Amino acid sequence: MIVLKIGGSEGIDYDLIADDIAAVVNEGTPLIVVHGGSALTNKVAEQLGHPPEFVTSVSGFSSRRTDRRTLEIFEMVYCGQVNKGLVEKLQRRGVKAIGLSGIDGRIWEGKRKDAIKVIHNGRKRVIRDDYTGKVEKVNIDLLQTLLDQGYLPVLTPPAISYEGDAINVDGDRAAAATAAAFQAEALIILSNVPGLLEKFPDESTLIRHIPKAKIDQFMSVAEDRMKKKVMGAQEALAEGIGRIVFADGRVEQPLQRAIAGEGTVIG
Ligand code: ADP
Fold first, then answer.
1. How many Cα neighbours within 13 Å face the side chain of 59?
2. What is the DSSP letter of 113?
3. In 58-185, where do the E strands start and end?
4. Nearest to 156 by CA among 88, 113, 110, 99
5. Considering the domain 2-266 in this protein, what is its CATH number?
6. Is 160 in the pocket of ligand 1 (CB under 6 A)?
7. Ligand 1 in contact with 223 (CB < 6 A)?
8. Could you tell me the distance, in angstroms and rounded to a whole number, from the CA of residue 166 to the centre of ligand 1?
9. Cβ–ligand 1 contact at 38 (below 6 Å)
10. Residues lower than pLDDT 50 in the chain
11. What is the pLDDT of residue 172?
12. pLDDT at 48
């Protein structure tokens, strides 16, 4: 089993990725796809007059401020346009793709954060009406039933809290939790960079291999959003995933290249 996370940033080529998913699925490799949609969500939020706001946690992680209206816009984009667009591309290529959010069938369940502590203009602030959280449980039975029937699950945030609220969760970390739940042989994270760069944005400084024992040292190399990916990798390693690859989602055969070890291989 391979878990593939496709980023939502500008430049990622969904057609090339869909071509490659079809090729890999046809070879008989079991796959679960997870995708993002952050860049398009930002655009749509602007257009709807509810511009995105990002908050930085006291531990230095940036995340989307998710009030109820933001959650609705997030669902329109992630569960709507991006998810159905990708499923359509895959169906056109003969893949039995089925698009589901983490809410559906409680595929991703977790804890809603009742208060998030953030730094705002240099001062600590507590936000209480945020719909965010972290995936703690994966509905393996449901996903396995779909896989057994030959379907390719195409998953997207949000997840669902134990109380039944939709929660915005980080896609990379949700993919890591899914890979861990299945004890996948690899977690592949495609983004609009060739991998983790020693000196972002200089692509010639690509880090090709990070041994498991050294992952903590690389947290400082990653800035803002890349930090979440490194954190997802840390979590996946801790849960026994042997191989995580950060790879380029803008090239031909992005999945097969990543499987072959092109990008940043962790583990
Ligand atoms: P996605 O939406 O594809 O999941 P993100 O935009 O969240 O991806 O994260 C990838 C981004 O992280 C890159 O486009 C880049 O701007 C940023 N980044 C920060 N530090 C690094 C780094 N050291 N190496 C690579 N990318 C980095």
1. 7
2. P
3. 62-64, 97-101, 108-112, 116-120, 123-127, 133-138, 152-156, 159-161, 166-167
4. 99
5. 3.40.1160.10
6. no
7. yes
8. 26
9. yes
10. none
11. 96
12. 98
Is 24's C-beta closer than 6 angstroms to any atom of ligand 1? no
Look at residue 125 in the predicted model and tell me its pLDDT: 93
The span from the CA of 80 to the CA of 63, in Å, is 21
Cα radius of gyration rounded to whole Å, the chain: 17
Question: Could you give the dihedral angle defined by the CA atoms of residues 243, 192, 55 and 113, in that order, rounded to the nearest 10 degrees?
Answer: -40
Cα dihedral 246, 254, 90, 84 sign: positive
Q: Which atom of ligand 1 is nearest to the CA of 199?
A: 23
DSSP label at residue 253: S
What is the 66 CA–ligand 1 centroid distance (Å)?
21
> Tokens 């959010």 map to which residue?
101
Determine the pLDDT at residue 114: 83
Give me the pLDDT at residue 62, please: 85
By DSSP bridging, strand 133-138 and strand 152-156 are unpaired
Kindly state if the Cβ of 225 falls inside 6 Å of ligand 1: yes
The mean pLDDT value of the chain amounts to: 96
Supply angle C-alpha 33, 143, 79, rounded to 5: 50
Q: What is the per-residue pLDDT for 166?
A: 98
**Test site for ligand 1: of 226, 246, 266, most ligand atoms within 8 A of the Cβ:** 226
